[in-house]
Amino acid sequence: xxxxxxxxxxxxxxxxxxxxxDLRRLKKMATKVNLRDAKxxxxxxxxHCAAGKGHLDICRFxxxxxxxxxxxxxxxxxxxxxxxxxxxxxxxxxxxLDHGGDPGAPDAxxxxxxxxxxxxxxxxAVRLLLSxxxxxxxxxxRGTPLHLAAAKDRDQVVxxxxxxxxxxxxxxxxxxxxxxxxxxxxxxxxxxxxxxDAALAGNRLADAKSQGKEAFAKGDYVAAIYFxxxxxxxxxxxxxxxxxxxxxxxxxxxxxxxxxxxxxxRMMSPHWSKAWYREGAALSLLKDYKGAVDAFVQALxxxxxxxxxxxxxxxxxxxxxxxSTFKEAMDALKSAVAPGRVEQQNS
Length: 347
Known about the structure:
Ankyrin_rpt; Serine Threonine Protein Phosphatase 5, Tetratricopeptide repeat; elongated; Cul2-RING_E3_ligase_SR
């Protein structure tokens, strides 16, 4: 095996100086080595090393005097911001962010600096990153920052994340919620925080639904939409909220938006007559009468006793553009009420 070159030894010495926080030695090595290119076996440069160890003076020298890029990446380990988040020194982290560091950049595995700071329990670093507007619930292969903090018994970080709107019910890999992670990590404090927040979230959801209904009853459809949106942030899979918001858009004459909500509602609950009814109403507003009839017929098949749906269908018959379409609609209505009867009459 060939002996290591003098330049590789010099690079290693320079990186060690950055790790040790020895600015004097690093400056001396900078006259012999191009520190912008010097990396260790894991792809880390001097700035990565210094950021991870919390050496602010080293970081300043490397960024301001040598021009190292704060967003350059190590092999799979992220940027200097990631290393600073792991190290937890908020002065270094703040410096890098102030000099162009990306606070939300994911590494090769999808981990963001918030993941790193949360897992290590660095409260000040977590608050600093959140103050930069990063997503509180980014997902990597192990979950969100809340998952990682709960698993490691970082109860103060869990509290901060929940205060900033982290989702305590988010499930990753089809199984794991933050609560389950806290249980696996034997963290009673985190379990209590998550259970309490889930209960409060349920109250907030109920309040938003109630306020939406009240606003709708008063004819304030814009306010109702606002409250339904708040409720949907907490429970995006509630088809009733989509149906209610679709109706609000209808009252405001916004057919396209009403149709979008109705179609999403119908996809979520294809066997719910109201979902089809809302779609028919939106299509009617958009003057797609044939499509409206098709939707109303599907609604009537699911709820044959509904006089509201029958009335909507009858109104469509007067708007259909042709006799043939009218006949098709009548046949569809008869088959919806009594399946098979139309075939017998036409045979």
